[in-house]
Design brief:
The protein is an alpha/beta fold. It has seven helices and seven strands. It has a single domain, classed as NAD(P)-binding Rossmann-like Domain (Rossmann fold). The protein is globular and about 50 Å long. The mean pLDDT is 97. It binds NADP nicotinamide-adenine-dinucleotide phosphate (NAP).
């Protein structure tokens, strides 16, 4: 790592979109801290990236575990002592039940990762991000959480009613805007991005038909993480850079 290299933390970096975000940030010369809740899975991901000569280091980070989040912040504080980019990528769908059949366990589990985990991680990392001359927080959300689509019965996916996931991403979108508003007069921008439908292990089972390459979704996340415009904050983008309505 050089003194001037940007430092990024990617949550859920051991597989799926997060893995490609970690890879592409490292390829862009960023010193990447790859967050993984499971150390063995994290080590395997870091080894694969290191084999390609990439500057990636493992940080144990379960975003639902307060002790893990605090320990990760402490480890980064010790070395390298700052953070320029936080990608809140870790996300789950603990189930796909419609509202009338959703269990509170399913909803709570989904919110623990997709909403509370983002808040816990962001707040723990903010002191480190405040040391950056131009910090970027990128929240990986989904267009499935966009209120303008949720409220349009003619919209694509209008009949898709998994309560926990869609509402968790709507909450994450609101969380994104509220952080951006509070941090407006700082050097930290906060934006949300939908990576598009991707062939990953998300939700278990086989990827849905039409799911694309996770690397393509990751490229959009990386562009937003590396953007130079401090005025771009509190915004929602598709992976190709198209602005989305909330
Ligand atoms: N795939 C899509 O089509 C799609 C579309 C729109 C949005 N997204 C969003 O994109 C993000 C990444 O999804 P993906 O498709 O890459 O999913 P994925 O392949 O299932 O990967 C999810 C990653 O998050 C990690 N993770 C889960 N819970 C965690 C926790 N409590 N703490 C830390 N890490 C945790 C997983 O770790 P383990 O390996 O330990 O489980 C894994 O590394 C999610 O936020 C998802 O909602 C995905």
């Amino acid at each position: 790592m050089t003194e001037t290299a940007k430092v990024a933390l990617v949550t859920g970096g051991n597989r799926g979109i997060g893995y490609h975000v970690a890879r592409q940030l490292a390829e862009a010369g960023v010193h990447v801290l790859l967050g993984a809740r499971d150390l063995d899975r994290g080590r395997a991901a870091v080894a694969a990236l290191a084999a390609d000569g990439l500057d990636v280091h493992l940080v144990q980070l379960d975003v639902t575990d307060a002790a893990s989040v605090a320990a990760a912040a402490k480890a980064i504080e010790a070395d390298p002592g700052r953070l320029d980019i936080l990608v809140n990528n870790a996300g789950i769908a603990a189930g796909f039940a419609p509202p009338s059949q959703a269990s509170l366990d399913e909803v709570r589990a989904t919110y623990e990762t997709n909403v509370f985990g983002v808040i816990a991680t962001t707040n723990a990392m903010l002191p480190l991000l405040r040391r950056s001359p131009a910090a970027r927080i990128v929240n990986v959300t989904s267009v499935l959480g966009a209120m303008h689509l949720l409220t349009d019965p003619t919209a694509r996916w209008a009949d898709l009613t998994p309560l926990a996931y869609r509402s968790s991403k709507a909450a994450l979108n609101a969380v994104t805007v509220l952080y951006a508003t509070e941090l407006r007069d700082t050097r930290i921008t906060v934006n949300a991005i939908c990576p598009g439908l991707r062939a990953t292990g998300f939700g278990g089972g086989s990827p849905p038909p039409g799911a694309g390459d996770p690397a393509e979704g990751a490229a959009g996340v990386v562009r937003l993480a590396l953007h130079n415009d401090d005025g771009v904050t509190g915004r929602f983008f598709n992976y190709d850079g198209t602005p989305y309505r909330w």
